[in-house]
Amino acid sequence: MTPADLWKRWVEFFDEEPADEPRFDPVHLATVLVAGMAAVGVLFWLLWGVLVYEGGLGSKEGWQVNVGALVALIAIIEALRRADRSPTRSR
User: Among 21, 31, 89, 91, which is most buried by a count of CB atoms within 10 Å?
Assistant: First the structure.
């Protein structure tokens, strides 16, 4: 190898990655993290509303909130199930 070839390889080492290679996107990562935390928070509060609030579904007090949270939870689960089984989804 000539010194020019060595210099060229050294400079290429610090060059930007080609556009066809995948890149790290910090905005995408932050969006995924925030959306994941929001989804876990919604799940927590729905389950808390069904099972804990005013004694849960087995108690006579606060049953409106319990039933409302249960209906919302069932609707979300059904929407996720339908989205997962969608015929337009590619594998």
Answer: 31
